[in-house]
Specification:
This protein is mainly α. The protein has one domain. The longest helix has about 120 residues. The protein is rod-shaped and about 170 Å long.
């Protein structure tokens, strides 16, 4: 079993009714007026003519209401469309302003980056020159030390008396 209460035919009507009930009230009034006219003590022709006149009056009123509502809807749509266009234009202007500001910031950052690269390049060149000079000095010192070592070895070799070739005893 379901937890929903059984309300019968009227409960089904409540499921489909979405509103204040004004439409049902209006429909009831119209049906009551129609039934009242049908049972009125008039001749059939008079009743038909009266129904036709009132029907035409209701139709005219409905058409007027429709036209007024349609005009109001068109006006509201036009106003909303104009407002939307204005807001879209405002947003476009703001986007363009932000875009320009962003371009300026990117250009400034680019100039600053180039400046730093140039500065670091100059420092790097100076460091390379200093390193090259130190390396040249190191090579010159090493070359001088190598010359001194060779001269020392040559001097030691020259001062060492070579043994006469005939005095040495052969070893077997």
């Amino acid at each position: 079993m379901t937890d929903e209460p059984v309300t019968g035919v009227f409960g089904m009507y409540d499921d489909y009714r979405h509103g204040s009930g004004f439409g049902a009230f209006l429909l009831g009034g119209l049906l009551g007026a129609l039934i009242g006219m049908l049972f009125a003590p008039r001749s059939g022709k008079e009743t038909r003519d009266m129904i036709a006149e009132r029907g035409q009056g209701y139709l005219d009123t409905a058409m007027d209401t429709y036209d007024d509502s349609r005009d109001k809807l068109v006006d509201a749509y036009s106003a909303a469309k104009g407002t939307a266009a204005e807001r879209a234009e405002d947003l476009k202007v703001k986007v363009d302003e932000v875009n320009e500001a962003l371009k300026v910031k990117v250009d400034e950052a680019s100039v600053a980056a180039r400046s730093k690269v140039t500065e670091f390049g100059k420092d790097a060149r100076a460091g390379i020159k200093t390193g090259a000079a130190a390396a040249k000095t190191g090579v010159d010192v090493a070359s001088e030390k190598a010359k001194e070592a060779l001269e020392f070895v040559a001097e030691k070799a020259a001062t060492a008396a070579p043994a006469p070739a005939g005095d040495a005893e052969p070893t077997a």
